Amino acid sequence: QVQLQESGGGLVQPGGSLRLSCAASGFTFSSWPMNWYCQAPGKNRELVATITSYHDAMNYARSVRRRFTISRDNAKNKVYLQMNNTRPEDAAIYYCKTYGHWGQGTQVTVSS
C-alpha cells in the first residue's frame, strides 16, 4: 500500500534553513505528483508546494515563494522541501501528500 514517511523537522531560528524529506513506497513514485502541506495550530491544512511527475513543474503558495524549494529524486523515491529564510509563521506540522494519501507529518518550529 502507499506509504509516506516525512522526516527532517525540528527547531530552526528565524532566517535559518531546514530540509524536509518524504520517503515514498507502494506506488510508481515517478508517475505521481507530490505535494507538501502544512498545518499550524488552529488553522486549516494548507498547500505549500507541488511538483508534478515527469516534467517536474513546481508551484508554490505565495507565502513561501522564493524561500522554499520542492524537489524530487525518482531514483530514491523521495521528495524534499528546502526551507530557507524561515519565518515564525512557517511553524507548523508539514505533511507529504500524493492523491488521497498522507504521511504522518513532521513538526517544524521556528523560534529564537
What does this structure look like?
The chain is an all-beta fold and 112 residues long. Helices cover 0% and strands 51% of the residues. Strand 9 and strand 10 form a beta hairpin. It is globular.
In short:
With 112 residues, this protein is mainly beta. The chain has no helices and eleven strands.
Q: Which percent range fits the helix content?
A: under 10%
Shape, per Cα inertia axes: globular
**pLDDT < 50 stretches:** none
* Biggest sheet character: 7 strands, mixed
- Share of β-strand residues: over 45%
Distance between the termini: 40 Å
Total beta-strand segments: 11
Order of helices and strands: EEEEEEEEEEE
Task: Count helical runs.
Answer: 0
**Oligomeric state of the chains present here:** single chain
Q: Decide which structural class fits the backbone.
A: mainly beta
The whole-angstrom Rg is 13 Å
Q: What is the mean predicted local confidence, pLDDT? A: 96
Would you spell out the secondary-structure blueprint of this structure?
Elements lengths: L2 E5 L2 E3 L5 E8 L8 E6 L6 E6 L6 E3 L7 E6 L4 E6 L8 E7 L2 E2 L3 E5 L2
Parallel strand pairs: 2-11
Antiparallel strand pairs: 1-3, 3-8, 4-5, 4-9, 5-6, 7-8, 9-10, 9-11
